[in-house]
């Protein structure tokens, strides 16, 4: 986890995300998909977004997936020992309304999602169910329930659960990997932002609420006395829960025990990490592979 500064009403960012694969023997053919391009939603305004791929792809094509994420698919059909993908985006994030004191009660939200009567709630209901990396279970429901027993208001209960996960789980980059599922991270009580988000999504779904995974970036500052290192930032993950027609989708970050404002830069949404993996694909050849990732999030004067 990194230090955060107080969120602003709006903030403009330059995001540079570079992925470099090195291979011990040449790759003959590779096909890949990227989900690193920002989308204009949830208060995000896109000024520019550019992708540079080396070697130059044989072909590339863009499309929008089921969750309305921007996807770039490309293939390289010539021998190569390195693959470098750089994505540079310029975006403005505008603050959502402060809903922390909203009076809507969680029982109202829960009942409405159990039997949707409007199109928006019906569309959100697909996020109430299990997904490949997030199960619905009694242990997850039992863990989440005290927050909802304690607070009748939805936002109060959600905030309490977010803070409890932050307090009860250890941030440990060695405890899990990208294939770790929510129930495994829950048993470990440890993991990274992906795991914290998966656990809270599982908790909410296990109580009947619609919750989805959000990938993106987080504005950070170095510790006092330290200089910010270019490229030392990281991708981040949090979650979004549907609070009914009055609240809409509310984003929260259990890794940092907070609701989401302009410090968070959303990129993709899905049921869990598998739907939003930044880069995935297949290759013929390559031998041993090494991967390095550099992320830099910097503020831009508007």
TrEMBL record:
<feature type="domain" description="Transglutaminase-like">
    <location>
        <begin position="185"/>
        <end position="256"/>
    </location>
</feature>
<dbReference type="Pfam" id="PF01841">
    <property type="entry name" value="Transglut_core"/>
</dbReference>
<dbReference type="InterPro" id="IPR038765">
    <property type="entry name" value="Papain-like_cys_pep_sf"/>
</dbReference>
<dbReference type="InterPro" id="IPR002931">
    <property type="entry name" value="Transglutaminase-like"/>
</dbReference>
<protein>
    <recommendedName>
        <fullName>Transglutaminase-like domain-containing protein</fullName>
    </recommendedName>
</protein>
<dbReference type="Pfam" id="PF08379">
    <property type="entry name" value="Bact_transglu_N"/>
</dbReference>
<dbReference type="InterPro" id="IPR013589">
    <property type="entry name" value="Bac_transglu_N"/>
</dbReference>
């Amino acid at each position: 986890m990194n230090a955060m500064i107080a969120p602003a009403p709006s903030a403009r960012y330059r995001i540079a995300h570079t992925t470099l694969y090195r291979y011990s023997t040449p790759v003959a053919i590779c096909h890949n998909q990227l989900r690193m391009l920002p989308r204009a939603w949830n208060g995000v305004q896109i000024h520019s977004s550019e992708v540079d791929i080396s070697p130059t792809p044989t072909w590339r094509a863009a499309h929008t997936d089921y969750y309305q994420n921007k996807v770039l698919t490309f293939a390289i059909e010539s021998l190569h020992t390195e693959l470098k993908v750089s994505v540079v985006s310029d975006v403005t994030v505008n603050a959502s309304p402060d809903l922390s004191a909203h009076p809507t009660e969680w029982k109202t939200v829960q009942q409405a999602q159990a039997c949707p009567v409007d199109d928006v709630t019906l569309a959100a209901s697909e996020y109430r169910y299990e997904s490949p990396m997030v199960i619905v279970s009694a242990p997850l429901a039992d863990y989440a329930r005290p927050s909802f027993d304690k607070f009748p208001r939805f936002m109060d209960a959600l905030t309490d659960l977010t803070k409890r996960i932050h307090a009860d789980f250890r941030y440990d980059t060695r405890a899990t990997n990208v294939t770790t599922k929510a129930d495994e991270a829950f048993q470990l009580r440890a993991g990274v932002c992906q795991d914290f988000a998966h656990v809270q999504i599982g908790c909410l779904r296990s109580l009947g609420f619609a919750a989805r995974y959000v990938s993106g970036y987080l504005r950070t500052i170095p510790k006092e006395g330290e200089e910010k290192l270019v490229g030392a930032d990281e991708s981040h993950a949090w979650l979004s829960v549907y609070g009914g027609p009055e609240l809409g989708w509310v984003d929260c970050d259990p890794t940092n025990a907070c609701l989401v404002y302009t410090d968070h830069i959303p990129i993709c949404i899905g049921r869990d990490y598998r739907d939003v993996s930044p880069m995935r694909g297949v290759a013929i050849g390559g031998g041993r592979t090494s991967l390095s990732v550099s992320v830099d999030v910097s503020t831009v004067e508007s």
